[in-house]
TrEMBL record:
Localisation: Cytoplasm
An annotated Gene Ontology molecular function: phosphoribosylformylglycinamidine cyclo-ligase activity
Enzyme type, top EC level: ligase
Domain PurM-like C-terminal: 187-352
Gene label: purM
Catalyzed reactions per annotation: 2-formamido-N(1)-(5-O-phospho-beta-D-ribosyl)acetamidine + ATP = 5-amino-1-(5-phospho-beta-D-ribosyl)imidazole + ADP + phosphate + H(+)
GO cellular component: cytosol
Biological pathway: Purine metabolism; IMP biosynthesis via de novo pathway; 5-amino-1-(5-phospho-D-ribosyl)imidazole from N(2)-formyl-N(1)-(5-phospho-D-ribosyl)glycinamide: step 2/2
Protein's UniProt name: Phosphoribosylformylglycinamidine cyclo-ligase
């Protein structure tokens, strides 16, 4: 998590200097000190060393217990949701979004997330602000069961405004070769189990911002009765992190696949894990999307198809399991506090069917 700033002393007098160009080395060092306690909370036994090195270290001998370990890697960001965090001055939740976007891509193939690194780019280093962002990332890593082994804080004066920032991250996980999940495991007759999202998660915010601010004229401070809180608080609700829930599911039930519902919507992401000769149907009547999805649709007069190919519509993760595993799968998720239900099934693919499709109307 160290900030890699030029440590050479600037020339004396009126000559050019790094500080004069807008890079504050001391602020970067202060940010590192503030974030250390949060990063420490994510440490796994396999992590060696601490902050300040040029690379994070993870003891790969832990993989010896695997017969044929496969390393999985994923990277992502949070998108334009960071702009809402900036405008609201709330910086300690956006890290949950970042971790969720990365680790829940890893777990789709059955991989246990091992560690993450992050990249935070700012226009000006505000140490407390950077530390709050890292705090959120660390908290997300704890929820995901992975370590935060390092990262980078970069100051880009002249390219970003003093309060502007962006975040990105990369994660690594491991899965046993013969436990790899994916399309080749999925069979006709499998059930599709939906897991509720916590809201919009981290996708579709360009559409959402255009609709609620530009078209509907709402503000972040607008109180929305259906939410029981302000619009800003609803839009900043962190992404739910499913990795430990999914891994628990693989230990108690037979699981053939997962689908992380992100950009592109539910049907498109589900289709990514369905083999070519099969088709997944998802019945809208099995759930009611949260109020935020209805608001976006009404405020922008957005057609349902457009909403569904942009937003998660209340489902953040899906599990594909054989029919005989449905009861134990639902019980496992319920025991872990995950709202889940059978939403559809895998059937033989017809001549004109896509890989996955939504049917029926949403429950009221």
């Amino acid at each position: 998590m160290s900030a890699e700033f030029d440590q050479r002393a600037p020339h004396a007098g009126t000559g050019a200097s790094y500080a004069a160009a807008g890079v504050d080395i001391e602020a970067g060092d202060r940010a590192v000190e503030l974030m250390k306690e949060w990063v420490k909370k994510t440490k796994r036994p396999e992590v060696l060393g601490g902050l300040g090195g040029f690379a994070g270290l993870f003891d790969a001998s832990a993989l010896k217990r695997y017969e044929r370990p496969l390393l999985a890697s994923a990277t992502d960001g949070v998108g334009t949701k960071v702009d809402l965090a900036r405008r609201m001055g709330v910086y300690d939740t956006i890290g949950h979004d970042l971790v969720g976007m990365v680790v829940d891509d890893l777990v789709v193939c059955g991989a246990e997330p091992l560690f993450m690194t992050d990249y935070i780019c700012v226009g000006k280093v505000h140490p407390e602000r950077v530390a709050a962002i890292v705090k959120g990332i660390a908290e997300g890593c704890v929820l995901a069961g992975c370590a935060l082994v390092g990262g980078e804080t970069a100051e880009h004066p002249g390219l970003l405004g003093p309060d502007d920032f962006d975040v990105a991250g990369a994660g690594t996980g491991v899965v046993e070769y013969d436990q790899l999940l994916g399309a080749d495991r999925i069979r006709e007759g499998d059930a599709v189990i939906a897991m509720a999202s916590s809201g919009l998660h981290s996708n579709g915010y360009s559409l959402v911002r255009h609709v609620v601010f530009d078209r509907a004229g709402m503000t972040l401070e607008s109180h929305v009765e259906e939410f029981g809180r302000t619009l800003g608080e609803e839009l900043l609700e962190p992404t739910k992190i499913y990795s430990l829930d999914c891994l628990a599911l693989t230990r108690t039930a037979e699981v053939h696949g997962f689908s992380h519902i992100t950009g592109g919507g539910l049907a498109n992401n589900l289709a990514r894990v369905i083999p070519d000769h099969l088709h997944a149907t998802v019945d809208r009547s099995t759930w009611t999307p949260g109020a935020v999805f209805d608001l976006v649709g009404r405020a922008g007069d957005v057609e349902r198809l457009e909403l569904e190919k942009t937003l998660n519509m209340g489902v953040g993760m899906m599990a594909i399991v054989p029919e005989v595993s449905v009861d134990v799968a639902l019980q496992t998720l319920a025991d872990r506090g995950v709202d889940a239900w059978v939403a559809g099934a895998v059937v033989e693919r017809g001549e004109h069917r896509e890989g996955a499709a939504l049917t029926g109307d949403y429950a009221k």
